[in-house]
Amino acid sequence: MAKITDRQMNAKPGSSDKWLSEVAIWGHGSLVARITPSGERLFYFRYSNSRGERVTYPIGTYSRDGQEGTMTLAEAGQRAKELAGLHKTGIRDIREHLEAEEAARIAARDAELARLAAEKAAAEAEQARQAARKTVAEWFEHWAKIDLVNRKDGGAEVRRMFEKDVLPFLGNMAVADVKKGHITEVTDALLARGVNRMPKLILSLMRQMFRFAVDRDLIEHDPTASIRKAKIGGKDVERDRVLSDEEIRVLATKAPEAGLLVTTEAAIWIALSTCCRIGELLGARWEHVDLEQGTWLIPAENSKNGKPHNVTLSDFSIRQFKRVREITGTSPWCYPNTDNSGPVCPKTVTKQLGDRQRQPEQGTMSRRSAKAQALLLPGGKWTPHDLRRTGATLMTALSVLPEVAERCLNHTEENKVKRTYQRHSYVKEMAEAWHQLGNRLNILTCPDTSNVVILKHA
């Protein structure tokens, strides 16, 4: 039979294989079809190989309408012609030839995939290299957006320090180019200004930023890793500055003449009489201050240890808060910023007090207070945090139990056993301690101090 027809291909299967064949194409092989008992309809190309053996090579599955993965009679005939053409050219071992072609195609495909993968890897490496060329200033912005934003002040204080002391040195450098020497150049400049603690703090912050870069594969090594903080500016010395009774009396006479804002002067006495941190005071809201009941709540988000702190206000403290209230008016903040959108910078009071404690040989600072020595005290320079320490010391000098004074400072009990089992709140004792401290400050700051008894501090 010259040609296989669709009618033949769709014939009912028999009990054994039914074979259909066409006339050989150019005498170099023919199309063959097979209908199995199970109903499969398969196409083959039958030819003689170089050894004279008859080979039946499968080329596809029949489908009248050419469904996916199948072929019609016409398609099978065309494929048979292609294979007969190969046989005619002298390729007798068609199966081996096609298998070799398939292997070559797979090898070529794999080679192409390997080439594409190598190109992708090279592109990624180049991209990483270019990313590593990010400047320190650019990386600082990324660090600020991802990490610093989670800090209480949104990273404002770290930004201020970097813009002043780090970025002028490193800002335009590529992160990958920063070496140990560049880091010490920053800290050495700070040491040359005569500060000791700030270089350590700046080093710690730079270390955080560069480790952030290491964690994200921007760089392989942290350039600050081999720098020991102890070698930067010498050993830290714990401050123990406490104002004496005499210094408090002198401060009471100097403060009104120091050219301070009324609110800043009041902040000195509030910090001293409540033992609060200056940042807790400057971030306070009037909704937490009850001058009628004499209480001030420092909310958890404002306290250093993340725990709310209830302060009992003495008459002395209340008078100072009232002075502040007269200035700030209807603002929700006790110490609002200039546009009343939030509290002032926590460094505001510290800066004002520091500007008025310059040694005579240092002179005045440009566009700063002309009263550069107005708040100098016999015991040396003092800070708002020293007022907190002084308040607690005065309490113990007034026979307040040290544990009560610690509670007034809102310190967390370090002894785990006591912290777990000692649940007494000391509310009454703390209130009495604040009142005693306020009474003592009333006496020390009174203009007529001829009868004041100077207490020996514990």
UniProtKB/TrEMBL annotation:
Coiled coil: 106-138
InterPro entries documented for this protein: DNA_brk_join_enz, Integrase-like_cat_sf, Integrase_catalytic, Integrase_DNA-bd_sf, Integrase_DNA_bind_dom, Integrase_recombinase_N, Phage_int_M, Phage_Integrase
Family per similarity comment: Belongs to the 'phage' integrase family.
Keywords of the record: Coiled coil, DNA integration, DNA recombination, DNA-binding
Ranges where the Tyr recombinase domain occurs: 238-435
A GO BP entry: DNA integration
Name used for this protein in its record: Integrase
Organism of this sequence: Azotobacter chroococcum
Superkingdom per UniProt: Bacteria
One MF annotation (Gene Ontology) recorded for this entry: DNA binding
TM annotation in the entry: none
